[in-house]
Each structure stands twice: as C-alpha cells, then as structure tokens.
Amino acid sequence: MQRFSSRSCAGQDQRVVDDGSPAVPAELADRFASAALAHDVEFLAVKAFAAGTRRLNHALRPLDLRARSYALLATACEPHPLTQRELATLLELDPSQIVALVDELVARGLVTRDTDERDRRRRLVRASAEGRRVHAEAAALAAAAEEASLAPLSPDEREALRALLRTLVFGPQPSTTTTAERA
Questions:
Q1: Would you tell me how many other CB atoms lie within 10 Å of the CB of residue 111?
Q2: Domains of the chain, with CATH numbers?
Q3: pTM of the full predicted structure?
Q4: Helix ranges (DSSP H) in the chain
Q5: How far is 76 from 123, CA to CA, in rounded Å?
Q6: 19-38, pLDDT tens digit by residue?
Q7: What gap in Å lies between CA 2 and CA 153, rounded to an integer?
Q8: Among residues 75, 73, 76, 95, which one has the least CA distance to residue 84?
Q9: Do 49 and 57 contact (CB within 8 A), yes or no?
Q10: What do you get for the CA distance between the two ends of the chain, in Å?
C-alpha cells in the first residue's frame, strides 16, 4: 500500500512516498490534472517510469542492487542466456553500461560470462547459483515495489496495462485466446 505524508520543503508541502522520495508537490498535482502534459503519453510514461524506478531502487537497497542490475540479473536467470550485445539491446543501455553492470555482477559472484559452444566468439551472461538465490530475494522485493506502484489500479486494469506495455515494447503478439473462448 502506498502511503503519503506531508512535509515542508522550502515552504512547499510535498506528498512523500513511503520510501522517502518526494512525489509531485500537492499543489502541482492538483493543477497538473487539467494540464496539456496530463494527456501526453510520453510524458506520463516517463513520470511513471521514474517513480517506479525510484521505488524499485529503494526496495532493492538491502541486496545492494538497483533497477538496472536487477534487470540484468533477472535476464541472466532465464533459460536462454543472452550476449552482452543482446542485453544492451533488450535493456536499452549502451554496451559500455552493460559491460560495467556485468563486471559488477561477476565480481559479486552473481553472474558468469561463458563462451557460447555454438560460436566461440560470443560470450553469454548466465546467473550463478548465488545469482539465482539473490534474484529470488530481489524478485520478491520487486513484486512488492510493483504492488505499491500499481496500488491505485484494479486487477483488471493492471493486466490491461501490462498487455498494453508488452505490445508497445515487443509489438503485437499472437493471441493465446482461442476462437471458442472469444465466442
């Protein structure tokens, strides 16, 4: 459950998310609802992303992870490992950022760089046993952060949001609903 409290910052009352980070100041939130930007999908997506990332980073702090390292670790736990270049594409990060993240997680013993048996020039990033253990803990913390982010939405709205975001990120996917189920 997301909790807000008020505090004064340079004379302004601000709503503060329970993780301690300031949200949109109350007087701006009231005026923002009718502003042109309130209808700009890109702006709203950026604001939602920033708030979610801030909440996720706060939740992952006990494991010394941040949103980017968590995303890389989660991907490394998948059954089909990716190369660093593929990780950069998937996570929308510069390859140099991926190298730094992988280096950090390798140093912590959470992932390994393994030679691809089919193409020895390629290095695959895989989670270690310790990485899988840490990921399980991190996934639980991330789920709680997501729950807080999506608290204002009903279960149906949450699933609709996920479906819309998957379509925007991955493109239209074949429906898993059969014709009989639609009837």
A1: 28
A2: 66-149 (1.10.10.10)
A3: 0.78
A4: 26-32, 41-60, 67-76, 84-91, 95-107, 129-150, 155-170, 179-182
A5: 12
A6: 444 456 677 777 777 778 88
A7: 12
A8: 95
A9: no
A10: 37
